[in-house]
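Protein in question quoted in full.
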Amino acid sequence: MSWRRSILQVASLALALFMSRGGTALALTSAEICEWAAQKAARESGVPADILGALTLTETGRRLDGVVRPWAWSANAEGEGTWFDDPVSAIAFAEDRVARGRTNIDIGCFQLNYRWHGQNFASIEQMFDPLENARYAASFVHQLYRESGDWRKAAGMFHSRTSVYAQRYLARFDALRAVLKSRGFQGMIDTPETYNSFAAINSSQRKRVRERVMLLGAPLGSQVTGRPGSLAVLASGRSPIERAGVPMIAIEMATPRGSAGGPSLWRRSQPP
């Protein structure tokens, strides 16, 4: 049995189990998955929600109906970025690159680089899981915060330890973070798309936009960086995955801390 077929079977089973329990939940679109994952990882790790939210927007922000939203099925291979239609296409692309020894590839909601972080995960499928991707990113940011003593500086180091690249990245991060804090995810209207250059394409095509970019987590002074997140959590119904635009798994939306007063970063919206 292929892993693609296995993923679909496990996802269908998880959805059936969820529905049989009569739980109150919301199915997420691809545009909302990273937002949900960032929220949950922030609550679990103690990393500020606006830090993780701005990071996923900076890494994979895609304009949909005028609103910039993070996109889970994103891959950036050596500066060539693509927003894929679905997880199966994204995983197949990344696996093909790695199989050919081209391991410098950023993956998922937080663009974790396989070269530097891949050894911490069981598979590329696991890298693309939005929740595991976000949890790993949160852990990494927390580690950088302990090292630097400042959340904003940690966000810059998440991109690169080389100051000039970190500062360039933070210019975009700061702009997105400011809007996110004042308006929430649904207010990301007049904001730029991702720092990286991505081409929104049909999954059957392989045209990508090339741009020289610094990748995640590079050692100090290096010219490139690189490492990842888990579809294995599908078995427990914790991971929201969709196929061909149809949600495959419904999940419970966590209630944000401090929801009283001020806009919520995570409020529910209609699919874009």
